[in-house]
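Reviewer 2 asked us to include a model.

Predict the structure of this chain.
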Amino acid sequence: MQHRRLGKSAIYVSDICMGTMTFGSQADEATAHRILDMSYEAGINFFDTAEGYPVPPDVKWVGRTEEIVGRWLKTKPRDAIILATKVSGPSHVWFKSPCRGGMTALDRHNITTAIEGSLKRLQTDYIDLYQTHWPDHGTAYEETMETLDELVRAGKVRILGCSNETSWGLMKSIQASERLGVARYHTIQNNFSMNNRRFEDELAQVCREEGVSLIPYSPLAGGVLSGKYQGGATPEGARFSRYLSLGGRQAEMAKRFVNDKSLAATERYLALAAEAGMDLVTMATAWSKQHDYVASTIVGVTTEAQVAPILAAADMVLPDDVMKAIYKISREIMYPMG
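Predicted model (structure tokens):
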């Protein structure tokens, strides 16, 4: 397992991070703990969660994932784990958060309330990487960054990151931090996969120039790159099978991931992976890691059987011919997720 620095910080992490967003909904606690143990024993030291997990967001189980991770964390040396969690952004944008009555934002009140809740559920006195879960372009970045800086100074947080942020928002936050002389974002956690390469359009340059690390989530494009949705399949227990049945925003999200273009691209990637003698899950994970601005790729599983093909990418470097073939498919089927 390789290790890389998070931004300009002193923290090094395994280049594969285990995400936890289905723990407590699709995966029960016993299964979650076995998955976490398998990851830890394989050399993964980086684990990502959030106050709003598990998904889909629901008040009946909000916070359960942090509780599950917290109980597991007590079985390991705390200093051996790099733990990341998130504070929910505003609920008036693309979905309503189940936290704090759906009145979330990135102001002082919400951030200070959120960190205390996460520390309690995770049974720890500090978070290694504390991230804003999605941007709040309606709250002054000065207030957000000053409040987050107070958490760093208090020892409750080591470093800061953002997620689902835009180029404008990332630069705005860095500018505010520099002007105020406060802690800045070292990481950005955005969607990035062979089926969604929009990060390369602008944000990749920001990361390179400003020393911010991408820690991409959904390298398997929400599981689509496993091939399980091919041919119109809606496998029982799969996330987007469930989202399609829920209707509304969840169904719209599923259609962004599972559509004619994404399935056509996946079909070609499946053939390429077979020709290269590897599982597409392994190829997609290795591809995600193989970018200079990526520090660690966040993966997610709901069963123990899903762990092995991900771990097979741990020390893998895809050869030039495979990388060129992936690029060719991306050029011929552009932006499968819109």
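The chain is about 40% helix and 10% strand. The beta strands are 3-5, 12-14, 16-19, 46-48, 82-87, 127-132, 157-163, 185-189, 213-214, 297-299. We have added this to the supplementary material.
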